[in-house]
Design a protein that fits this description.
It is built from 10 helices and 11 strands. The chain has 285 residues and is α/β, with parallel strands linked by helices. The strands form 3 sheets. It has a 6-stranded parallel sheet with strand order 1-11-8-7-5-6. The chain has a 3-stranded parallel sheet with strand order 3-2-4, sandwiched between helices. Strands 9-10 form a two-stranded antiparallel sheet. It is globular and about 50 Å long. The structure holds guanine (GUN).
Length: 285
Amino acid sequence: MTARIIDGNALSAKLRGELAAKAAELTAKGTQPCLAVILVGGDPASAVYVRNKVAGCEKAGIRSLKFEYAQDTAPADVLGKIAELNADPSVHGILVQLPLPKHFDEKAVLEAISVEKDVDGFHAENVGRLSQGQEAFIPCTPNGVMEMLKSIETPLRGAEAVVIGRSNIVGKPMAMLLTAAGATVTVCHSGTRDLNFHTRRADILVAAIGKPKFVTGDMVRPGAVVIDVGINRLPDGKLCGDVDFESAKDVAGAITPVPGGVGPMTITMLLANTVESASRAARKA
Ligand code: GUN
């Protein structure tokens, strides 16, 4: 059996078309959605992500502002910019690209962003709201995964879901979303004793580990939906995921590729959160 490929580019194109229409409607009524992106330091991967986010905004008719700071910037300068953007009613989303340089207190920076403009969904209040099932900005990568599962009508209620990775950005919110959708969720991590025991039981397997080709076909339950969140660069310069696509595709029922899987969906959900934030601001105005 060869797995069905869940095409993140195609799904993104469809959703971004709908978002562009909403953005145009808001703009016509006097509220053009606007995302401010802050990048600190010269990490090449972060620079690429930020460039793709800004380009995604432009194509969808969302205004974007980009603020770049040197690696040795004082945290107070970035916090000052965040305060300025919080107070600017024409800005609807604020995103600080992670990771930040070591001398930054990441938590303090994320908490400085106004909850209403936290389109990454990383502020502790949004995380708490999500965990309680209250309206919240949902972190973009796990939200994109949920859209991908929905697009192929994956049954979630009662499904066995296994998430490998427990990061604040992906693993933890992913587990919350799957739980809220009725799945029975197991979160595996570096301390998990028998990883294969868990992964082989999964109807839905989400890999967010950060290790190239870590999940091999023998770890996948036949027919499972395999979601690969990893983006790793191999020594030859090529991108690959956390899943060994070649061996997993012969076992899985459906699988996301890398590139062209979860990656574009992350940016699509960021655009969706920005449009939603602008829409809330317009309703309040
Ligand atoms: N670094 C890796 N993923 C993300 C993300 O989704 N948002 C931000 N701000 N930084 C990241």
